[in-house]
Design goal:
Blueprint: H1 3-15, E1 22-23, H2 24-31, H3 35-44, E2 49-52, E3 55-58, H4 70-75, H5 78-89, E4 97-100, H6 107-110, E5 119-123, H7 126-132, E6 138-142, E7 146-148, E8 153-155, H8 159-164, E9 170-173, E10 177-179, E11 183-186, H9 192-201, E12 204-208, E13 220-223, E14 230-233, H10 238-241, E15 251-254
Parallel strand pairs: 4-5, 4-9, 5-6, 9-12, 12-14, 14-15
Antiparallel strand pairs: 1-3, 2-3, 7-8, 10-11, 11-13
Helix pairs in contact: 2-3
């Protein structure tokens, strides 16, 4: 390891030893180098530090949320996600207006929309929009704003109002964490408003989530299980886990 690079990373690690985050600009100022140099140090040297949303965090520090990488998530549990989306497609009717959430879980669903003659898809996710744009039978409503590359999604102050003005039949929602007591959560706070608006507006709310998300709590809470009509999952234990849950009207569809 380059001595100067090692010294800089050690200095930053010490600054974050008690937890918290450090803005990249402040990290560069602390080390007396440019932001690009700090980025290069992180990219080329082994370190417990990671850059998340323009801030440095200790990824090995207890309680720090792992970095979300959409490319990595797309390859994770792909066959399970495909089964979940096959089940989700069975809830869609001709002429529906669908809210399709961001992330990787719902991507396999989009290839199944070509079987319908007429649909509308509302989304704030660029990867969803790019796929839907190629389907001639699907009308696309892309909600814009500031682009967040980590999740390939947009965020804006007016997104909640924009969604609430639409007539959404089904909201297909993904999540990074599902806990029976602490609710449904995701990694990114800019996703909370569109998720909540879609849940509040839609006639039917479907949570599509694989079993690896159960018992996990992520930083951004956005709903309780009682806010959903259906949970589509691959965990056969899910119905039993809900027996004593207050969301008594919630149904479980196991793919």
């Amino acid at each position: 390891m380059n001595d100067r690079s090692a010294q800089r990373l050690a200095m930053l690690q010490e600054a974050l030893a008690s937890g918290g985050t450090l803005h990249l600009r402040d990290a560069a100022e602390l080390c007396g180098v440019s932001e690009m140099t700090i980025r290069r140090d992180l990219a080329t040297q082994p370190s417990p530090l990671s850059l998340l949303g323009g801030r440095l965090v200790m990824t090995s520090y207890p309680g720090v949320t792992p970095v979300y990488d959409l490319t990595e998530q797309q390859a994770s549990h792909y066959h399970v996600k495909h089964r979940l989306c096959q089940r989700a497609a069975s809830f869609i009717d001709e002429g529906d207006t669908l809210f399709v959430d961001c992330g990787s879980t719902l991507i396999p669903l989009l290839g199944q929309l070509s079987h319908f003659r007429e649909l509308t898809v509302v989304t704030y996710a660029l990867n969803v929009a790019n796929t839907v744009a190629a389907l001639p039978n699907v009308r696309l409503v892309l909600l814009g704003g500031l682009f967040h590359a980590s999740s390939q999604s947009f965020g804006s102050d007016g997104m909640r109002d924009a969604i609430e003005r639409l007539g959404i039949n089904k909201a297909l929602i993904s999540a990074a964490g599902v806990d029976w007591e602490r609710g449904v959560s995701c990694f990114h706070f800019h996703e909370v408003a569109p998720k909540q608006a879609a849940i509040a507006t839609a006639m039917q709310r479907l949570l599509v989530v694989d079993a690896s998300k159960f018992g996990i709590v992520r930083p951004a809470y956005f709903a309780s299980l009682a806010d959903f009509d259906v949970v589509i999952t691959d965990d056969e234990r899910a119905p039993g886990l809900l027996e004593n849950h207050p969301a008594s009207s919630l149904s479980i569809s196991v793919a």
